[in-house]
Amino acid sequence: MDNATSQIPIPFHESSGEPIPDPGIAKAMDRIRESLERKAIAAGLPVPSNGKPLPNDVLRSALFGVSEKVFRREEKIASVEGLDVYMVRGYRPTQAHLDVWEQCLDLAAKHGTGKQIRFSAYSFLKAIGRNTGKSDYEWLKEAINDLASCLVRISNGRYSYFGTLIQDGFRDEETNEYVIKINEALALLFMGGRWTALDGEQRQMLRKHPLAQWLHAFYSTHADPYAYKVATLKELCGSDTEELWKFRQMLRRALEKLAETTGWECSIDDEDKVIVRKSKNRAKSLSG
């Protein structure tokens, strides 16, 4: 018998030139990553010396937009490149909701995520610069209900958060006292310095101008702002204005208000790009 024909043919693939990962190293890296994640969750949210912490992944999208919308099925919403944000279910929060969520995260940063956080409606409204009349108490009740029913998915390429913006809670209808929880997994969105503390005084000055508020939050996450097209910002802020020229008019007014409040230089150039230049001595926000 010919030895050459009796051998079982075994295909040998040419090497791609890439090193074969060592299983031991891969497992070690997984353990390190898991350890970092556990530590981040255990550490909770950051407590900045000025301002209240918010994840950049939220501020760089239309999640807290300028227009109201109800989602009954999962839908991807506009966000910057490298970031995926989905509304799974619920009422898309607006800039007014962001004031509430920002205060909730500030309380969670100080008292702990995943733990019961107690506050009165009166103290909460005062903390966010709101009036304390009957209609304001009702407004806060609705805003917290909206955030508790808003189910989202946020992925930055490394970590993905899926859950509601407020985990759960209850309210005493007689005393108007609240007890809420913030999901401890939200801490993962703050890893690597991916967060910003907004200038609260400036934000309050922009309260009646939701587009200017959105721009303020969005550009506060940029140390050196990129020149975005007007059409891109229209999508990113969640505007429901159909005509681009009409949105451009609204944007110009919002940029003027933003410049007046912050001291930033804001304009729209000949290529229909928004140019924002920050004055270093006026920029107070902390960007990740």
From TrEMBL:
Protein origin, superkingdom: Bacteria
Database matches in InterPro entries: TrfA
Pfam entry (one): TrfA
Region (Disordered): 1-23
Protein name listed in UniProt: TrfA protein
